[in-house]
Amino acid sequence: MIHVTFIAPDGQQTTIEAEEDSTLMQAAVAHDVDGIVGECGGAMMCATCHCHVDAAWQDRTGGPSPDEVEMLEGAAAEVDDRSRLSCQIRLTPALDGLVVHLPEEQM
Ligand code: FES
Is residue 106 a part of any domain in this protein? Predict the structure, then answer.
């Protein structure tokens, strides 16, 4: 299992245990994490799975692909250099302990 902590805009933290090899979006939706919608089911067509990877984890998650950057332009909340689509982050053992911040809004 991969542990992931989500930090809401108000500072509230939620830690879940996710299945290895699932995406971050799938794990968040499966655990009813408020703030990740995943409307398109991971087809990279909605940007409602936007999150900000904690700076300490950016090296391990890597950055967004060019297609992901393009889709993030449609995100509802402010996009910054930590922004990723959570459906494009696959949870490997190297990401055990991952911390991500949830945006103010998704739609
Ligand atoms: S779930 Fe739609 S872009 Fe990630």
Answer: no
